[in-house]
Amino acid sequence: MTEDAAKGLEPSKRPLTSDERDLVRWLVEHSESEIPDLLQQIERLTVFEKCTCGCPTVYFALDGEPVSSKGERIISDWLATVNGDLVGVMLFQTDGRLSSMEVYSCAGTDEPFGLPAIDSLFPYEDAPDRGFK
Length: 133
Fold this sequence. Notes:
Order of helices and strands: HEHHEEEEEE
Radius of gyration: 14 Å
Number of strands: 7
Helix content: 10-25%
Oligomer: single chain
Mean pLDDT: 91
């Protein structure tokens, strides 16, 4: 078994979907990152790995070269809903390059789910106001 397979990742050489691209763009635009040129990277990203658990988490390649997840740092961290369920959405960078987008179930469900709609994203501090704890 490869190390990536042990982590629940599978190869996936493909372009970002329009929904992934739009979500990554929104996350960059709403991050507190001071890293220049992140927006310019979006059109050059592809997906080289994806999670196998049923969540829409993806790992990026930039200009065809996989971006290492070693030393990743969160640059954008939000909550959202998918089909009424609470999910977390995080965008990571490594050495100034977008590296991955993690979307996870806050309830820990094993059921597959898709990306949240951008209009469902909200900051953690708004969770109690929305009935989430």
